[in-house]
Amino acid sequence: MRLAERTMARLTDRRGERVLAVAALVGLAVSAVLSLVVAPPDAVQGQVQRLMYVHVPAAWLAYLAFGVVFVVSVAYLKGGRTRWDRLGAASAEVGVLFTALTIVLGALWGRPVWGTWWTWDPRLTTTAVLLLIYLGYLALRQMADSPARRARWSAVVGVVGFVDVPIVHMSVTWWRSLHQAPTVLRPGAPTIAGSMLAALLAGVVAFTILYAYLVALRLRVGRLEERADSEALSARISGQAARPRPAIEQAPPRPALDGQARPVGAQGRTGSDA
Amino acid sequence: MRDLGYVVAGYLVTVVALGGYVLRLHARARRARRRAAALSDRRARTARPGH
């Protein structure tokens, strides 16, 4: 865990973030060349199969992002450290983006190949459920009223929600599906041509670096927003301390024991002399 | 040739979604930094004697 913390700290400082940004840009450029120029068109599907080089990495990155949410949620529930909660929130947000992208790219691929944008196929349905689970995770983070409760509830959802990830992956094996079976993450050798596999792996590597960059950037945004919120709170507290307390000054006069109302100033200390 | 449109659309959606998210995060970071700086500046001014 110490090593993970050190690596995270190094990757999320400004220099690490810049290195990740440059590496992600280079990786995406290489991946684009390999997938659009070097890899041949598919013998059956033709050019449209090139969508695989963005659709599959996006799906794998969604798995990775939610895997990270699972691991840090367990770490938070075990140790209660806020940094795991922050990392979980950042990873879930990026994971939701990749899941939504997977669904949109799948629809764009499905239309010319299957003749439909969407069908209630097990793979598509379980992926839609995955998106809903983590949208719920992000919504929950907005609703909880205390940071500790928010972190605890989110960690529980982060652990339970991850159950859907293996279901999504295995859905094409467990149920009869229109979606093709795994070609790389399967028992035995990948059933894909070498140049296509190289383009696909380049896409996965580029998207993984991009994921690390997005998480680092999202963590920095979180830190800056927390700083702004704490500044706002300090400003409110110091503003309240500088103002006299009106509640005591404006209190109605209490009848004195002898039945005479006492002057306001005689009732006690006011905000200005406190 | 018609299928090429789906490929172009797919790559375009990917660039717009990921690029848009990066730009949005940068905008949020800039806004939070400015807000924190403005608040701390105002607090420093009100804390100074004579204000």
Give structural notes.
The complex is a heterodimer of chains A (274) and B (51). Chain A has helices at 2-11, 14-38, 52-79, 82-114, 122-143, 147-161, 164-174, 194-242, 246-249. Chain A has 274 residues and is mostly helical. Chain A has one domain (12-179, 194-225): Up-down Bundle (Four Helix Bundle (Hemerythrin (Met), subunit A)), CATH 1.20.120. In chain A, helix 5 (122-143) runs antiparallel to helix 6. The radius of gyration of chain A is 27 Å and the shape is globular. By secondary structure, chain B is mostly helical. The radius of gyration of chain B is 22 Å and the shape is rod-shaped. Classes of the chains: A mainly alpha (274), B mainly alpha (51). Chain A binds chain B through residues 32, 36, 46-48, 50-51, 54-55, 58, 97, 100-101, 104-105, 108-109, 111-112, 210, 214, 217-218, 220-221, 224-225, 227-228, 231-232, 234-235, 238-239, 242, and chain B through 2-4, 6-7, 9-11, 13-14, 17-18, 21-22, 25-26, 28-29, 32-33, 35-36, 39-40, 42-43, 46-47.
Jot down its keywords.
heterodimer, A: about 270 residues, mainly alpha, Four Helix Bundle (Hemerythrin (Met), subunit A), B: about 50 residues, 1 helix
- What's the helix count of chain B? 1
Strand element count of chain A: 0
Q: What's the tally of helices of chain A?
A: 9
CATH architecture of chain A: Up-down Bundle
**How far is the N terminus from the C terminus of chain A?**
49 Å
What is the overall silhouette of chain B?
Answer: rod-shaped
Rg of chain A, please?
A: 27 Å
SS class of chain A: mainly alpha
CATH class of chain A: Mainly Alpha
Q: Major β-sheet of chain B, in short?
A: none
Which runs of chain B of at least 5 residues are low in confidence (pLDDT < 50)?
none
CATH topology grouping of chain A: Four Helix Bundle (Hemerythrin (Met), subunit A)
H-E string of chain A = HHHHHHHHH
